[in-house]
């Protein structure tokens, strides 16, 4: 609660005396910039007399109709009880399927089966054989980057519809669960007998030690107000019971990534990222927390789109360079171009 | 973005707080008398009284927080607003109190500023451990003149270019870039000169651009200002993000006439009848335009006596001058009472009266655009600013060349999402209704076309934006073929002046829709056949050479129905289906206009705007809720538009005759009757009507 009356925020404190010729800030102006409590909005035409009987009737009808809510992605009204859950990955929380309408759901191209074990591409992949240096071990993505997904992401990222964020972040969960399951399986296969009996491993402890994200430049952050990858990472960490920390910094960009060719992007990404000053310390602390661990630290790098893998790779290399302890890096992105 | 908070010592008022985009400009203005005098002289203003001292907070604050803190200081004294500080409010005396205590000494003032800044950084929580915000005393330096005149010129240019506008920082900069006046320093000096207002785009729990309240605000951690709960408005995102730490620039009201003399009186113009003649209107158009013109040129009337409810509200306000206090928890009553005087000071405004408006109810195909020409002419020729706004972009694109032809001396500035003309200025503006969010007290006449169309209909934000874009004393003309029920009621009750145009420009009656009983569209499509009545009606229309509009209520019915028609009338030309999600929609409409398509199956998206000379209309599932009275009247209005084929046929095909269908038919019949009674129909049209009804 604040002691200020509502409105009046633009009430300027600098009010020079009125002068002839130029009208000074007069009351007419003030009336527009502030609105009193209890005062209705400016109206285009007189208010029609209320039609209470029909309003009451509408209320009554509303009670009889199935509950409707606004879709979290498109905003259109729909009845959650009437839509089926068929075709949805089962790791999606119930709150997600209750908040997204059938038509939005059916437009989401989930990546359920992958072809390339390295980059998680759902169809055959030429990129991964071309790579010479591998900073990360595997990367997985939630959806294919179709036109609809591109538009959805653009609404969040560029238009700034931050209300979309929880629904987009939830969409990472199926891909995350699949990656975690792969790693748990690998742990069990390679681990010694004692490990296999380790209660942690059997309980299915999360196989990552830390979640981090691909950074945006300071300038972009000031423009946009948020780093979409960092937000996705933070939400994922909360939902999966992990910790998220930004560990990387991005230098000022030379032109937009989206306007470049594959080769240009790979070159541009080189040297674009470096570890934050506190990253080494964080990793050292993390490693020291569990001296019994027999595998390297595992970090998950989150980003919004995986295009060529260049960004992911350079982030991974930057972390490898700074880390005082051995680390394994994995990637998770919202979309796979 | 961030802004700088500072205090300055006024000889009479004591310490006052202010926030600035550029502290250096404020320092020069307040402390350097020479610089200030030069800037003021260039701007034609009198110089400010020099401040006796100035203290600047060295750590910039999130912009919204800085402006709020300054306003709070000036209102309540040197105590930051916030729950922790209520006790202090009781004890603190306002430094500006006339005859009160002497102003704080410099170190005390510095400490108070530090406290204010700290509270602004962490509004509710405990104080931040991150150390004290540094405060420095700004020193008067002399002889920094020279640049003053140039900056003052830029400030005046900025103020001129932003008259009647409400723009975010980026928009203002883009608009001012051409004049070289887009710098923060120029904006800041214009604000100091009192010719602009600067503030957070979201402030006091409300989006200051679109007026949306808390329900539309989303508070998130913000990388631009560092606040962990920076509010941004979700309602007006389409026009760029309005947020707490974003700057909103409000210009002064736009001025009509030469040098702001206001609208010239209508007596200077030739008589209305003479002016109307030049536009070549039909008798019905002319009669309606004449009464709209009379409304427009009538002198402003004193505000009508308050209705019962506002009167009650006024009474309440008089009886309870501090009604707002009741909302405070009892513990803080005392503190609140101390502040009561200050609250009351800002509680003087009456609820905003709407600008006078006039409803022009013109049937589909009446030629409503021609009717607005004399209205625009009246305002433009008197030196005023006129706006034609419509919810739909394609209508803007269609009107643009017609307005350009009608008013070659004041070509319209055309604004829509992605339009190229954004930085231009002119006295005639043509825009989509969303663009009105960027205007404030700007127009003397607002013509609102198709106010019942999406997205304007039912969007309170856009209604408010339209209302606020009117200058003091402006008039609004609402233009539609299908006024929403609330407007119809206002017109009936005599609370909304209006004129009806019951006849089309070609002076033939509107085709009256006929009812057909058929199964549902999807049912017919699934069965692969239609009842012979519908089939024969379609065959007859195709036989007479008409193109067919087939309306369906849902996207999913469009393609199946098109397939069915393709199958049943395989030799009659091409059939296509379109809807809002169809990427080829524009292309299909073009092909339909060019007669390459014979039949177009569509959802309600084409119920307005697309006019085909020889066309018949079939509305399938006419009993669907999607087809309300207005939608049916609009869709029916696609038929019989040209003088060469004024009849056309309209069929409502449905399993049952719904109330909406009956009301739509009644509305069309009433309009035809009114047209006949007024003698607007051509004499020949009676016989064709007979043919129509015996058909
Ligand atoms: Zn949806
Ligand atoms: Zn691959
Ligand atoms: Zn807003
Ligand atoms: Zn912010």
TrEMBL record, chain A:
InterPro entries given in the database record: ComF/GntX_DNA_util-trans, PRTase-like, PRTase_dom
Basic and acidic residues bias spans: 15-33
Highest taxon in the source lineage: Bacteria
Coiled coil start-end: none
GO MF terms held by the record: glycosyltransferase activity
CDD domains to which the protein is assigned, alphabetical: PRTases_typeI
Alphabetical UniProt keywords: Glycosyltransferase, Transferase
Keyword Transferase on entry: yes
Region (Disordered): 1-33
Family according to the record: Belongs to the ComF/GntX family.
UniProt xrefs under PANTHER family: DNA UTILIZATION PROTEIN YHGH
Protein name: Competence protein F-like, phosphoribosyltransferase domain
């Amino acid at each position: 609660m604040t002691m200020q009356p509502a409105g009046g925020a633009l009430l300027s404190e600098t009010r020079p005396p009125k002068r002839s010729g130029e009208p000074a800030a007069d009351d007419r102006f003030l009336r527009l910039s502030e609105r009193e409590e209890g005062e209705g909005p400016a109206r285009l035409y007189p208010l029609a007399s209320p039609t209470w009987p029909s309003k009451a009737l509408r209320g009554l009808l509303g009670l009889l109709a199935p509950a409707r809510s606004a879709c979290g992605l498109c905003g259109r009204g729909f009845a959650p009880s009437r839509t089926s859950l068929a075709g949805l990955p089962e790791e999606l929380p119930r709150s997600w399927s209750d908040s997204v309408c059938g038509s939005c759901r059916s437009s989401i191209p989930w990546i359920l089966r992958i072809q390339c074990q390295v980059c998680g591409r759902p169809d055959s992949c030429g990129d991964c054989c071309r790579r010479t240096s591998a900073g990360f071990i595997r990367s997985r993505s939630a959806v294919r980057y179709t036109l609809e997904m591109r538009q959805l992401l653009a609404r969040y990222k560029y238009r700034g519809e931050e209300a979309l964020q929880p629904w987009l972040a939830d969409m990472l969960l199926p891909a995350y669960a699949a990656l975690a399951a792969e790693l748990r399986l690998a742990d069990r296969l390679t681990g010694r007998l004692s490990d296999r009996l380790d209660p942690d491993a059997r309980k299915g402890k999360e196989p990552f030690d830390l979640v981090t994200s691909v950074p945006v430049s300071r300038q972009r952050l000031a423009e946009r107000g948020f780093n979409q990858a960092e937000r996705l990472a933070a939400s994922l960490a909360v939902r999966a019971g992990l910790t998220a920390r930004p560990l990387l910094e991005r230098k000022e960009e030379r032109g937009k990534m989206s306007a470049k060719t594959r080769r240009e992007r790979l070159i541009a990404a080189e040297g674009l990222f470096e570890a934050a000053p506190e990253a080494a310390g964080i990793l050292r602390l993390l490693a020291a927390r569990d001296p019994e661990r027999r595998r390297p630290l595992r970090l998950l790098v989150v980003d919004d789109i995986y295009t060529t893998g260049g960004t992911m790779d350079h982030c991974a290399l930057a972390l490898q360079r700074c880390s005082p302890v051995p680390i394994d890096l994995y990637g998770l992105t919202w979309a796979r171009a | 973005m961030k802004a700088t908070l500072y205090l300055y010592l006024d000889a009479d008022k004591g310490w006052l707080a202010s926030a600035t985009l550029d502290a250096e400009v404020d320092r020069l203005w307040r402390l350097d008398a020479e610089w200030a005098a030069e800037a003021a002289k260039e701007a034609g203003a009198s110089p400010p009284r020099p401040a006796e001292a100035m203290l600047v907070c060295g750590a910039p604050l999130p912009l919204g927080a800085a402006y709020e803190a300054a306003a709070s200081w000036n209102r309540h004294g040197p105590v930051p607003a916030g729950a922790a500080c209520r006790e202090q409010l009781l004890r603190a005396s306002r430094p500006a109190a006339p005859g009160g205590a002497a102003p704080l000494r410099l170190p005390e003032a510095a400490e108070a500023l530090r406290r204010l800044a700290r509270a602004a950084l962490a509004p509710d929580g405990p104080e931040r451990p991150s150390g004290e915000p540094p405060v420095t005393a700004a020193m008067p330096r002399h002889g920094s003149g020279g640049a003053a005149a140039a900056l003052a010129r830029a400030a005046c240019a900025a103020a001129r270019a932003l008259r009647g506008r409400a723009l975010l920082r980026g928009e203002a900069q883009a608009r001012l870039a051409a004049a070289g006046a887009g710098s923060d320093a120029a904006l800041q000096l214009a604000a100091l000169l009192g010719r602009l207002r600067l503030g957070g785009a979201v402030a006091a729990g409300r989006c200051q651009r679109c007026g949306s309240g808390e329900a539309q605000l989303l508070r998130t951690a913000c990388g631009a200002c560092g606040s962990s709960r920076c509010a941004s408005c979700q309602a007006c995102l389409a026009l760029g993000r309005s947020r707490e730490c974003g700057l909103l620039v409000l210009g002064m009201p736009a001025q009509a006439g030469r040098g702001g003399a206001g609208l010239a009186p209508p007596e200077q113009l030739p008589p209305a009848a003479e002016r109307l003649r030049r536009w070549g209107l039909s008798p019905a158009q002319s009669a309606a335009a004449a009464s709209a013109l009379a409304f427009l040129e009538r002198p402003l009337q004193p505000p009508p006596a308050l209705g019962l409810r506002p009167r009650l509200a006024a009474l309440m306000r008089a009886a309870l001058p501090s009604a707002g206090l009741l909302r405070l928890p009892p513990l803080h009553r005392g503190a609140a009472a101390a502040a009561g005087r200050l609250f009351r000071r800002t509680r003087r405004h009456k609820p905003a009266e709407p600008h006078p408006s006039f409803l022009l109810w013109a049937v589909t195909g009446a030629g409503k655009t021609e009717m607005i020409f004399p209205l625009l002419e009246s305002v433009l020729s008197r030196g005023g600013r006129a706006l034609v706004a419509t919810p739909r972009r394609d209508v803007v694109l269609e009107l643009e060349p017609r307005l350009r032809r009608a008013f070659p001396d004041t070509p319209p500035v055309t604004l829509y999402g992605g339009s190229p003309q954004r930085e231009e200025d002119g006295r005639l503006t043509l825009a989509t209704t969303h663009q009105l969010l960027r205007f404030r007290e700007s127009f003397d006449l607002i013509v609102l076309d198709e106010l019942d169309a999406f997205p304007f209909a039912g969007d309170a934000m856009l209604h408010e934006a339209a209302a606020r874009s009117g200058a003091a004393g402006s008039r609004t003309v609402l233009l539609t073929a299908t006024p929403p029920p609330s407007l119809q009621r206002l017109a009936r009750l005599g609370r909304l002046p209006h004129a009806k145009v019951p006849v089309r420009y070609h002076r033939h009656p509107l085709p009256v829709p006929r009812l057909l009983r058929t199964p549902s569209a999807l049912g017919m499509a699934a069965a692969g056949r239609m009842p012979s009545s519908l089939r024969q009606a379609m065959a007859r229309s195709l036989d007479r050479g008409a193109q067919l509009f087939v309306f369906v209520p849902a996207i999913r019915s469009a393609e199946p129905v098109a397939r069915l028609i393709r199958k049943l009338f395989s030799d009659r030309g091409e059939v296509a289906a379109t809807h809002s999600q169809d990427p080829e929609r524009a292309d299909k409409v073009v092909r339909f206009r060019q007669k390459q398509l014979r039949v177009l199956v569509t959802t309600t998206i084409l119920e307005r705007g697309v006019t085909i000379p020889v066309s018949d209309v079939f509305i399938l599932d006419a009993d669907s809720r999607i087809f309300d009275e207005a939608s049916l009247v609009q869709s029916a209005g696609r038929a019989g538009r040209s003088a060469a084929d004024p009849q056309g046929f309209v069929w409502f095909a449905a399993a049952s005759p719904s109330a909406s269908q009956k009301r739509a038919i009644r509305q069309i019949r009433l309009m035809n009757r009114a047209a006949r009674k007024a003698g607007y129909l051509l004499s020949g049209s009676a016989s064709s009507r007979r043919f129509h009804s015996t058909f």
